Request: fold
Amino acid sequence: MARSRRSARAAGTRFERIVADYLAASIDDRIDRRPRSGARDRGDIGGVRLSPALGGGRVVIECKDTVRADLAGWMREAEVERGNDDAEVALIAHKRHGVGGPGQQWITCTVDDLIALVTGRRPR
Reply:
């Protein structure tokens, strides 16, 4: 059975919720799903920050639950959202189909994002 737009949105919402809940339980209980905000979207999950020792900058997380990967498109979207949120890092959380645990899902980022995660400073 093909996925309808409605079922795809529901799957995306469920995926955002399990990732946000897992991060909130594991890192900081202020982490949560963000409401949709149209053209000025700031990512799917808010409240994630770098360690205070690394400056405490914001981290944008864009969640994807799709069968087909579009890393280039997803990263463009995450980068726009990073700019909208004035964040240091943009991450993509994407579903590993057949793997249910939220801690076993994939995270994708650029090398600049990795540098910011490790050092607290985004290369300019």
